[in-house]
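Quick one, tokens below. Sequence please?
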């Protein structure tokens, strides 16, 4: 008999807000989890971990991804059940549709536009983050750009003295930035992160539509923020 896991090594996932297809490759462990749920449902997270010989925390991100894709469903006080990919009518799917960016955003990590690329590298390590929001020298809430590990690596590959390079020379400028608003849905945030192949988006309380400075930086949404939100939903007594 053909198993669901034989069909989902690669998932052709159509985003709910944009008519595009994204290919997501599942790991061997994720395919094993789907198979266990198919065989033992309803099954708790602890039982899945026992079957794999792993700890429950080790599986948190795998279970969250599978639930988000609709391959597995999670119901409070019941456990994990086979999903119907892509299933936005499941318990988790309905909860995800209700969440907005305002519900999951985190505080932005800021660096002033008069800092150097070396300062940015230090801050990335000190704050254990992958993205810094670059703000105006006069106004902290004026977002002028974003600098990431990749941006700084490009500068370092040129063997340039980072002490002499302004962070504004390394950052992605506002014209190339994608942003979110607090009222945007969580699913829209996921779609934009995947579509633009980035790990973090700034959240602004007013639209970025003019050539004026971008004011109203109120937070950021990262892939970690999204995974934590999904984990919080999937771990409700499952």
């Amino acid at each position: 008999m053909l198993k669901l896991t034989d069909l989902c090594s690669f998932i052709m996932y159509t985003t709910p807000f944009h008519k595009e297809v994204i290919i997501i490759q599942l790991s061997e462990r994720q395919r094993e989890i789907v198979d266990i749920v198919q065989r033992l449902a309803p099954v708790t997270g602890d039982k899945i971990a026992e079957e794999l010989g792993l700890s429950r925390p080790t599986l948190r991100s795998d279970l969250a991804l599978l639930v988000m894709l609709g391959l597995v469903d999670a119901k409070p006080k019941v456990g994990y059940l086979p999903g119907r990919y892509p299933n936005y009518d499941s318990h988790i799917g309905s909860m995800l549709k209700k969440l907005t960016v305002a519900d999951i955003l985190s505080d932005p990590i800021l660096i002033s536009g008069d800092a150097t690329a070396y300062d940015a590298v230090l801050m990335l390590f000190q704050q254990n983050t992958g993205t810094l929001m670059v703000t105006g020298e006069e106004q902290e809430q004026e977002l002028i750009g974003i600098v990431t590990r990749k941006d700084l690596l490009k500068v370092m590959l040129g063997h340039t003295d980072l002490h002499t390079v302004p962070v504004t020379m390394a950052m992605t400028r506002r014209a190339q930035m994608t942003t979110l608003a607090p009222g945007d849905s969580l699913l829209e945030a996921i779609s934009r992160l995947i579509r633009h192949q980035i790990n973090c988006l700034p959240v602004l309380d007013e639209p970025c539509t003019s050539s004026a400075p971008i004011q109203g930086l109120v937070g950021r949404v990262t892939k970690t923020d999204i995974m934590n939100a999904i984990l919080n939903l999937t771990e409700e007594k499952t």
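The longest strand covers residues 143-148. Residues 1-23, 209-213 have pLDDT under 50 and may be disordered.
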